[in-house]
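Q: Hi! First time doing this. I have a protein sequence and I read that you can turn it into a structure. Is that right? Here it is:
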Amino acid sequence: MVDIAHRVGIRAPLQQVYKALASQDGVAGWWTRDVSQAGGVLQLRFNAGGAEIGAMRLKILQQLPDQRVLWEVLAGPEEWLSTTIRFELKQEADYSIVIFSHEGWQQRVEFLHHCSTKWAVFLLSLKALLETGHGQPSPDDIKIDNWN
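A: Yes, that's right. Below is the predicted 3D structure, encoded as structure tokens:
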């Protein structure tokens, strides 16, 4: 198994960071604008140039206020199926620290490298949302290659 891992400090209260990760409106502010939630499942769609380029469903496994958000991928890119996405939160001085991991990849494929970079892009979008009030969720995210 292979995991993607990142750490980012955000100058915002832990409660605000948690809300941005654990709510539909929060996720829409940093990851993708097209997100809905029903029955403990997040549905996300990604668009570019007016066309859908990807969609996924994430089961909410755990939400511990100000501590952890954990999702399981139910539908999406083949390499993502049955993986988990984890956000561990802690306070360090003026920073809320997000320890991120996308766990359980079956192989170290090229798409894993792409996704690692895109996760970094979206984690910086989360940081910008909380520090400035403006994130860069899809479709306004930084494009890194032809996979978007």
